[in-house]
Amino acid sequence: MEPYYSDDETGELVSNAPTYSRPAFEFQMSKLKELVSLYKEKLNDVEKIRTEQPCHPRAMAVEYQSYERAVGILELVTTSNQDLNKVLTVFTYLISEIKIAREYIDCNVVIGLNFYGEGKMQADQMPEGEAELMMGQMMPFFSEVFESLSYVNSLVVNLVTQLHSLYYKKQPKNHDLYGNLFKYVHLNSAFDALGKMLGGLAMIDSVVDDNQNLVNHWDLYKRMMQFAKNDPAKYGITDKLERQLRKCLLFLDKSILSGNCLQACLSHKGYEAAISSNKELQNEFLNYFKVKIDKLTNSIESQYEWQESKIVVDVICLYFLYRKLYPKDFDKKLFKSVWSLIKKAPVVCVTGQVIIYPHELIMKIAPAPKSVAVEPKDPEQYIKAYMQKSDDNLDKSMQSWLSKFSLWSSRMQSFLNSSTSLPENQVQKLQDSRGKLLLQGLLLAYQIQNYIQVNTALHERNGVPFKANFIPLLMQAIELTKAIHSTLERKQEIIALYLGSIIRLIFKDAIKPYDMIRDKLGAKPTGVGLDIISIYKLVNELGSGCLNSIRSDLLKLCNEIVDIKSILKENEKSLVEDGLWKFEILVEYQTNLKNSTDCSFIYWIQQLNTHFLKYIYDEPANVHRLRYLYMALEDSAKQMLLCRHVEDANDIKQNYIKDRENELVEMVIMPLARAIESDLRLHIHSLYITGIEKQNPFQSSNLSWFLDSQPMVFCEKVIDIKRKIEMYLDETFYNMTALNLNDWRTYEEMRSLARQKYKLNLSEVHLPSKHLDQGMDLLDITKKLPNFVNKFKYNLHSQFFIEATEGDEKHVALVSYMHITNSLRTHGLGLINTTINTSYRLLAKKFQIFSQFLYDDHVYSQLVKDRKFFVNNREALNQMYSYDRAENFLREVKKLGVFDKNLTLIDKFRILITQIGNTLGLIRMIKTAGLNLTATRTQFIPNTQNIPNITELAEKFSDGTKSAASSLEDIMESLTKNFTADTDYFKILVTTFQGVLNTNEASHLKLFYMIIPTLTISYVESMLTAKDKLTKKKALDMYFTDDGFAVGLAYVLRILEQESHFDSLHWFDSVETKFAQEEEKLTVIKASEEMQKMQNMSLKKISVFRVEFELLKYCFLGARIFFNNT
C-alpha cells in the first residue's frame, strides 16, 4: 500500500500499511522527525527577523496583484442560457471598463489638472508668453483627456442602452429576458458603475472650475491663436492645419476647459428617444435610488463607512441622468431624497483642497422645476454648522481613533505567528481574524483621512482659521493614517503570503447561503430555477480560479440575479452582501491601501507644515511624529510627477523636496543645533568664568528627544537630525578653533561634553595647540599676492614667511615650504604655473614704479653728484664709497617730505625692493615645495632613470590589467618628469626683464647701484626699530627678519648687470671701516664716569649696527648666488 501525505499543515508522512518491529528504522525516523521539527521551528523564526530599518529606504517592496493568464470574460461566463451569458458578459465588461476609466480620471486627469501652474511663479510675476508656453505643454495631455472623455461618453451611452434593452417589456418572444427573468432582478451594480462614471466627470469639472490659473491661461492661449488664424504661414502651418487646430481647440473649450464634461455627457445625442417612455427602466432607476440612498444614509458616519461619502456625488450625478432621460416625470419625493444626502455629506472632497458642494451641483444642473420643501433649507448655514460640529468633535473623535488604532495595532502582531502548527479549523479562524484586521485598518485609515481632508478643505474654502488645539490634533490624525500604512507595509511580506487564502475564505463564506437555494430548487428545477442553478454553478466556478476585480464584478451581478423574488432570507442576504463587500475591498487591497492612507492634501495647506514644525520644536517629546509628517509630504511629491505643464515634472518634485528639507533645517535643525551649541558653551564658561550662572536642567527643554529619534526617509533621502547637528557642530568648532587657536581647549571640552550629555559623535578638529599643519593655502596667497608680499617678511635661510604683527595679536601667521607642499598636494602641480604668471605680472608693475622713482630729478641728480664725487676722489677714499656721503643722501631725501608712518622716499623705495625680493622668495619656496612633493611621490619608484615598459609586460593579461598597467605607466612617467624637471624660474625672470630694463630708454637706471648704500642704511635702521618693538606691547609693524630686501637687491643688480659697479664701491668694507674708526675714537678718549656710560652706549649701538650690516651682507651674498648662472 502506498503511503500518503495528510492534509494537515504539519506535513507528516502517514502510512496505512501494517506496522512491523523495526527498531533501527524507527530510531532513524524519530531522529528525522526531530530534525524536521527543529528545522520548521527555525523557519518560523525567520518571520520574526526585522527585514527593514526605519532609517533606510526600502530597496524592494512586495506588491500583491492578482494574476490570471489568458482568461477573458467570455471564458468565465459559461451558463447553459446563451442569452444570460450575453447579459453577464456585456455588463461585466462595461463595469470593468468603467472602473478602469474612473481610475484613470482619479489618478491622472484630476491630479494633472489640479497641479497645473504649480512650481511656477505667480501670475503677476510671470514673464510675458510664459502662460501660453505652459498651456502649449498641456496640449498633448488635453488630447489624451479628450479622447478618454469620448470613450467615457460612449461607455455611458452604451450602458444606458443596454439597460434600456434589458429592462424593456417589448422583447422578442424567444428572447424575452425581461419577462422570464430580469423582471424580478435589480442590477444595482450596473447603476453603481453608471453613477461612478458620471461622478468622475463631475470631479473633472470641479477641478477645472477651482484652478483659476487654468481658466486664465486658456483665455490667453485662445487669444494667441487668433494671430495664427490671421496669418498661418507666419507660424509655419497651412490653412487646413490651422482650421483643424481651431476645431480641436473648440472641442476642448466646450468640454474640458469650460467645466462642462458632465453636461456634455448628459446632453449626448446617443441616448435613444424610446428611453423616455420605458417605464420598466424608470422603475429600476427609482428602485435603485431608494435602496442606495437608504444604504448611504445608514453607512455614512458609521464604523463601517467606506467611501460612501464620495459615492454621494455618483448618486447625484446618476439622478441628473435620470432627469435627462425622463424630463417630464419630476418626482418631488425623489428630489427630496436626493437632497437629503446633503445632511450626511454636505461637502465631498475630490483631490487636494478641491471640493464639491452637492447642493450647488444640484442647483446648477438639475434644480427643482417647482417649489419643493427640502431639508436642509439653507445648505450654506448647514455647512457652517457641520464644520463647527466637526471642529467640536475632533478631540472626541481623536480619542476614539486612538483607542481603535491601539487595539488594532496590538492585534496586528498576530501576523508574526505562524499557522503551520495549528489544525485546519483554527487556521481558518486565524485567517478570518487576519482578514478582519486588514479591513479594520483600511476602514480606520479612510475614515480619519476623509474627516481631516473635509475639515481642512472647509476651513480653507470658507477662510475660517483653525482653533488653537487643531494643529496637534490634525498632526495626530495624519500620524495615525500613516502609522496604519507603515504597519501594513512593514508586514507586507506576510500579508502577500496569506492574502490569497484570506480572500478565498471570505469568498467561500459569502456564497454559503447559495447552497440553501440549491436545496430549495430541488434536483430538477424548471423555468427560472434552471437559470438560478446555472448562476450557482458559475459562482462556484469563479471561486476555483484567481480571485480578481473582474470576477468580483461578475460575482456581484450573479448575486443580484440569484436573489430573484427575494429568495434569500434577510439574514442570508446580509451575510452574502457583507461577504461581497469584504471581498471587493480586499481584492483591490493594494489600491485601497494607497488611496485610504493618501495624505497628499497636506500640500495644499502648506502653512500647516510651518505650524507642525514649530509645534514639534516647542514640544520635543513629539519628535517621533516628524517621520509620519514627512511620509504625508512624500505623497504630494509623488503626485507632482503627473504635472504636464512643464517639460520635466521631476524638476518640480525636486524643488519641492528641497523646499521641505530647507524648511526642516531652518525651523528645527538649525535652531536645535544653535541651542545645543549655546548650552555647551554656557556650561563650559560657567565652570571657568565667575558670574555666569549654571543652567537649571528643570527649566530648560530636553533637547535629547531630537537626538534620540530615528532617522527618517523622505523621497528616498535619509534625513538624520542627529547627524546634521553633528556636522554643524563639527564645522562650527573647527572654524572657531582655526580663527582663534588659543581657544582650542575650550572647544575640546565642549566636544567632550557633547559626547557625554547628548551622545553626539563629533569629529576631531585636528588643530593642536598653537600650530596649524595645513597652513595658508597657496591658492589664497596667489589671489592676494600684492598684499602678501607687503605684509609678510621672508627668511632666506629657513625658507619661511612670517607675518608682521599688529599690536595685540595673539598669534602670528607663518608660511613654510611644507605648507606650500600641502597646498600643491591638494590643488596639483598646475598651481605652480599659475603662481609664476601672477608673480610676473606683479613684478612688471613693481618695476614700473621702480623706474619712475629713479627717473625723478631730485633722486637722479643726487646720484650723478655722488657718482662724480666717488670717481674724482676714488684714490683719496681708498676705493670705498663714503658712509657719510650715503648718510647725507638719506638726510637730503628726508627734506623732500615724510609720508604716513614717518616713511621717506628712500623708505618707500626700500619697501619696493623688499616686495620684489619677497616675490622671488615665494617662487623659490614653490620650487622647493614642488621638488619635495614629487620626491615623496617617487620614493616608491626603484629607478626614476630607467622605468620598465609595464604595458608590454601586461600584454598577456586581461583587458582590465592592461588598462591598469597603462594608467600606472602614465602616472610614473608624469612623476619622474616632474621630479627631474630643471626649470630655472629665476633665470626666466631675469632674462625677461633684462630685455626691457637694459635698453637706452632706461638709461636713468644705470646709476641704481649708487643708491644701494643709502638703501642699506635705511634697511638697517628700520630693522633695528622693528626688533626693538618686539619687547613692547601693542606696537605696530613688529618683525625680526626681512631677507626679501637682500634678495630684491641681488635680483635688480643682476637684471641691470651692475654687480661689478656695486662691487667697485666696496660698500661693506666702507661700513666696517667707518664703525672701526668710530670705535677707536671712543676708546681713545678718556672721560668721566657719566661720559663713560654714554661712550658705552655708543659702542653698543655701533656693535648692533655692525651685526645688522654683517647679517645683511651675508644674506646679500647668499642671494647673489641664486643669479650666478642667469
TrEMBL record:
Residues 961-1124 form the WASH complex subunit 7 C-terminal domain. Coiled coil: none annotated. Residues 52-600 form the WASH complex subunit 4 N-terminal domain. Pfam families: WASH-4_N, WASH-7_C, WASH-7_mid. GO terms for biological process: endosomal transport; endosome organization. Residues 601-945 form the WASH complex subunit 7 central domain. It comes from the Eukaryota. One of its GO terms (cellular component) is WASH complex. InterPro entries: WASH-4_N, WASH-7_C, WASH-7_central, WASH7. PANTHER family: WASH COMPLEX SUBUNIT 4. This is Uncharacterized protein. It comes from Stentor coeruleus.
